[in-house]
Amino acid sequence: MTLPFIEWLPKQRWYAGRSKKLISARPAVDVTLHEDIDLILVDTTYADGSSERYQVLVKWTSEPVTDGNPIAAIGEDAGRFGYDALHDPSAARHLMALFDSSATRGQVVFTKEPGVQLPVDASPRVSGAEQSNTSVIFGQAAMFKAFRRISAGINPDIELNRVLGRAGNPNVARLMGSYSTTWDGRPCPLGMMAAFAPNSAEGWDMATASARELYSEGDSDFCGESYRLGQAVASVHAVLADQLGSTAGEFPVDSALARLAVAAASAPDLAPLVPAIEARFNALAGEPTTVQRVHGDLHLGQVLRTSETWLLIDFEGEPGTPLEDRRRPDSTLRDVAGMLRSYEYAAYQPLIGQGSGKNEEPDDKQLAAAGEWIDRNTTAFCDGYAAASGRDPRAAHVLLVAYELDKAVYEAGYEARHRPAWLPIPLRSIARLLS
Ligand code: ATP
Ligand code: MG
């Protein structure tokens, strides 16, 4: 096959190889899903010796597609034209039909979840969200996500959503199906179908809207939502523990220390705080705690408010960490801390770049207002969590602070490298957490 993937891939926004020099992009797997639809796994190699595998669903046509999305046109191969099938409504509907019949095509297996009714006649449209994958929304009912960068192993997003969905948990987007293949004898997940939450709002947008009003003398209360969010997170944790178990474990001191070293190398402002942070982590060595499967990368951007309730989405765990690490049981305080860190970001974000001077700090009044907002919402979130679970995350104060520190340290390293204007947010938090 001569489709020019080497030219096409770098133009796709989900392409992850931008920082490297691409040497080759060749189809390694080609499975016919339908007479005019192929599933192609493209292997890329880079000048630094690394490689990646991408999923491309190709719709074949006899004429070039001129009225569709120009970015979706891949090119010509032996007199036919290849087009990104996810952008083609009839092909997307055909993919839906494959889920509905739990079809097998070559090495590719589609699985519909038991008891699920798929919207087989709904019209598909590609989601406009800035994503590392590609999602197609069917009417108001379902969202199909095709993973772009493929790796072998168990995908925690499918794994945990399946457990939560089958247990009837109301705080996740119900998993409707998934599809996968194998790669060197290991399972290789390719994508998933989940219930779509129409007219939902992202937690981050709601929280920052509330926080912005703090600085314009407005009055908007997010505490009721924070309380319900705490309840939702607790309910997800309870089902994960119930279905997948919980065991004795420990705070991961070594990985926290390693992350601290990496962050301190990027953020010189962190240096004076390193000994105190290390002491906090080391003090937890050997301290027993309970661990279970958790979300792993929970923040306000991973929760959606529907007209009824809060949903937790994207159980992929922390991006950039190996799949095995992401599936490792951890304390539920990991997720609580992630959410509390997100409250700080939501409160301080409107203050970034506010002043006229480049490095102007927010004034004391603004900082006090932000601090109060954070306290109120932290309290509400923890109250909601405690009410639903019978376990107050604040009761394990030392451990919770350690998880918050671990996250804030990671943020400091990230901000120092990518968004120096934001660095004061985690630094301020680290100082407060240590005090
Ligand atoms: P990222 O690259 O940011 O991790 P992703 O490709 O993994 O993105 P998701 O995070 O699952 O994709 O979803 C992207 C966006 O689509 C979300 O931020 C959310 O706004 C929206 N979304 C995800 N799932 C649903 C759903 N079930 N119902 C409605 N909207 C959803
Ligand atoms: Mg994601």
From TrEMBL:
It comes from the Bacteria. It catalyses: D-maltose + ATP = alpha-maltose 1-phosphate + ADP + H(+). Residues 8-88 form the Maltokinase N-terminal cap domain. Pathway: Glycan biosynthesis; glycogen biosynthesis. Transmembrane segments: none annotated. Keywords: ATP-binding, Carbohydrate metabolism, Glycogen biosynthesis, Glycogen metabolism, Kinase, Nucleotide-binding, Transferase. It is an enzyme of class 2 (transferase). InterPro entries: Aminoglycoside_PTrfase, Kinase-like_dom_sf, Mak_N_cap. Residues 227-316 form the Aminoglycoside phosphotransferase domain. Its EC number is 2.7.1.175. Belongs to the aminoglycoside phosphotransferase family. Monomer. This is Maltokinase.
